[in-house]
Amino acid sequence: MPNSNLSTVSELSLKEKIGQLFLMGFRGNDISEDSEVLNMIKEHKPGGVILFDKDMVHDQPVHNIKSPEQVRSLTKALQASSETPLLIGIDQEGGLINRLKPEYGFPETISHQKLGEKDDEEYTELHSRHIAKTLSEAGINLNFAPVLDLSSNPDSSIIAKRERSFGTSPEKVTRHAQAYIKGHRQENIQTCCKHFPGHGSAEGDTHAGFVDITDTWEENELDPYETLINEGLCTMIMTAHIFHNDMDEVVPATLSRNVLKNLLRKNLGFSGVIISDDMQMRAISDHYSLKESLLEGLKAGLDIFCFGNNLLKEQVELKDCISAVEQLVEEGEISEERIDESVSRILKLKESL
Length: 353
Prior knowledge:
The N and C termini lie close together (6 Å). Helix 6 (170-185) runs parallel beside helix 7. By secondary structure, the protein is α/β, with parallel strands linked by helices. The strands form 3 sheets. It has a 6-stranded parallel sheet, with helices on one face. The radius of gyration is 19 Å and the shape is globular. The protein has one domain (19-352): Alpha-Beta Barrel (TIM Barrel), CATH 3.20.20. Helices cover 38% and strands 9% of the residues. The mean pLDDT is 95. Keywords: Glycosidase, Hydrolase. One of its GO terms (biological process) is peptidoglycan turnover.
């Protein structure tokens, strides 16, 4: 990704800075003069976009991804249309969680679970580089992986049953996450560790609604994060929408100052970018309005809000997100300095690419 035209925080207007706080999903798989994504980028300047292969709302097979050539063309056009280089993100963990599927002409991938079972770190790094090379060739610069969740609950519908964890022990998860990140770094692909502070013990799925891990979560679920942060391998972390009463009696982790500012920043020493899991998951969208979720997220310490626009029929418009944050600034709920903190981290991340 070119960074010769990467602005500094002081060069951006308030509206432009707020735009950097959002990573948006969109409909369509090309850019034409009247496409919604082109208008969004030119008018409202998001920090990034996220790509999906399937339209989950309308249960249709093609969303943003049709073929390697089409994706390359799309990502090239997206970057060309943006004044500030975009983060172009995707969920390409491997195995069941892969948007660039063989049926669209992309290479086969292996799940975290299968890599953990093989338990060969050199092989994990090699396979990770194979995934990252596919992303690089497609013009994608951010992979929402590796998953650091422990496979502590074999009945977990969203982690264990989808083969998304390297294993049950923090030590094994840490080793393979290290190898996975190193493989991606060889191809200059940004990784994002997820789902903080740990989703592996939950039986429920935050896509569907409220999930409480108070009685199942264990402190060793933080161990992989602590090690990777200390080793400088963890530059971006995605939050989980899980609820833990002992961490925060009121809000889920994504919106919790105690979880993000105290536990993650202060206790674990994380200084990188914190991104939310999809804010349209029902664990958030069923309980908070757009403005409320943005206010609580900013107060908690989120840097980037992800709106995939692929879970609910009602699309979230970037202009409405920006307007809501502008109102929060005008009302004195959020300071411009607070926004500057996040934008500084985001631009630093983009510079590294």
